[in-house]
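name: query_chain
kind: protein
chains: 1
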Amino acid sequence: MNNSRTILTKMISVSRNCRFTLDLHQIFTKKLDERDLEILLRWIQIIEEERRIEIDRSKKKF
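structure:
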């Protein structure tokens, strides 16, 4: 379940660390198998990358 901890960390990094994030994480870990968690983790990583790209673009404009 190493993916589970990593996923929670990533979820918190792309969203606020709120109760909703923790609840959603619990649902994911109960409902998804290890392969599905890997896919979710990759999806979150893509979101992080896109977010960084947007921030960098914003900085370059100013």
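note: The mean pLDDT is 87.
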